[in-house]
């Protein structure tokens, strides 16, 4: 019986840990996020971006990064497991590396570096990418 109560407590704690935490973002970043997806419809999540250009990346907050692909498409990536500490704050930048492919995929690791010193100050893992496209 005692073992069963430990299992129940463990299951309850795991359920609490699995709850998605809402990202904290400034009003300006929230407006930027809303502008990016305005007039677009979300599609089913995909595991990789069809193409990837770091210049098209927009940091929304420590847990959310957007990738523009032309004017009609945007992919939103949410970082599971707490996001990327310090991402989006000067002088920090996200650095990704792809080996053997030009795609950025779920599970790829990104480093957050101090652009002045080149020192890694954090890292995170990409989750799925949700595509948003203009309807019609």
Features:
single chain; 136 residues; 5-stranded antiparallel sheet; alpha+beta; 32% strand; 2 helices; disordered N terminus; 3-stranded antiparallel sheet
Quick overview of this protein structure:
The protein has 136 residues and is α+β, with helices and mostly antiparallel strands. The protein contains 2 helices and 8 strands.
Sheet with the most strands? 5 strands, antiparallel
Query: Uncertain regions: pLDDT < 50 for 5+ in a row?
Result: 1-21
Which structural category do the helix and sheet elements fall into?
Answer: alpha+beta
| Helix amount | 10-25%
Shape: globular
How do the strands line up in the largest sheet?
Answer: 1-8-4-3-2
Q: Could you tell me how far the N terminus lies from the C terminus, measured between alpha carbons in angstroms? A: 59 Å
Average pLDDT score: 80
Counting H and I runs of at least 4 residues, what is the number of helices?
A: 2
Oligomer: single chain
């Amino acid at each position: 019986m005692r073992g069963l109560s430990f299992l129940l407590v463990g299951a309850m704690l795991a359920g609490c840990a699995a709850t998605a935490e809402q990202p904290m973002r400034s009003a300006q970043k929230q407006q930027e996020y809303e502008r990016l997806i305005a007039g677009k419809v979300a599609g089913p999540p995909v595991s990789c971006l069809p193409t990837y250009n770091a210049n098209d990346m927009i940091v929304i907050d420590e847990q959310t990064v957007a990738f523009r692909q032309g004017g009609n498409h945007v992919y939103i990536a949410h970082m599971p497991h707490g996001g990327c500490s310090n991402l989006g704050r000067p002088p920090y930048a996200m650095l990704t590396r792809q080996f053997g492919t030009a795609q950025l995929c779920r599970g790829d690791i990104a480093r957050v570096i101090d652009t002045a010193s080149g020192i890694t100050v954090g890292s995170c893992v990409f989750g799925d990418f949700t595509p948003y496209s203009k309807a019609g």
